[in-house]
Amino acid sequence: MHNTVTIRPATRTDAGPLIAVLAEAFHEGPLADWLIPDPADRRTVYYRYFKDAFHHGLEHGQVHTTSDQYAVAIWYPRLEPSPTNAHQRLAALEAIAGPYAPKFALLEEMFEAFRPDEPHHYLAYLAVDPTRQSRGIGAALLADQHRRLDQLGLPAYLEASNMRNRRLYLRHGYTAGPTIVLPTDGPIIWRMWRGAPTSGGRTSFPRTRRRRRSL
């Protein structure tokens, strides 16, 4: 079905609809339950968090959407190490998430610590409006970026936070690497890798070298 989906770069004028899509698509699931147990608080905090994520993606990454604004993907080229200002980010998370900031900071720190060093593009978020899921829209967004990456000879990397998403990415050429287990009864996160094309197939999941914790 995804041949009928029109994909285009997102702009600031898409902010309202796409931030809502992100917040709604990620509202349910084991990671959301761990980050913010209270669903009412979660809705408020998630809108602020994904507003920040959307605008950060526009400034530093690649944001794609569909003509009807029912889906969004935020990618980041990770072609070389990109140091972050840990104290600045922690302050931003405290403003966004209030008392829930420590878990958000821990999550982002864990993701950064286990991210591959090998040059790749990182899929930070793929979200489809819950009323439009299972129609091939997410697959279309993936395929669109995968074509570009194959032309560039680059791999893709992401973290899947539930089994449904893990199965989706496995169907689209990703392999699962070592997991991340979040502390304090947190959920399992599956690290996923779609290797660069080679004459013999695709490059394998790179060896994990955990970075030092910084926050």
From TrEMBL:
Source organism, top-level taxon: Bacteria
SUPFAM superfamilies listed in its UniProt record: Acyl-CoA N-acyltransferases (Nat) (SSF55729)
KW Transferase (keyword) present: yes
Keyword Ribonucleoprotein in record: no
Record-annotated N-acetyltransferase domain positions: 5-197
Alphabetical keyword list: Transferase
GO molecular function: acyltransferase activity, transferring groups other than amino-acyl groups
Pfam families named in the record: Acetyltransf_7
Protein name: GNAT family N-acetyltransferase
Organism per entry: Micromonospora craterilacus
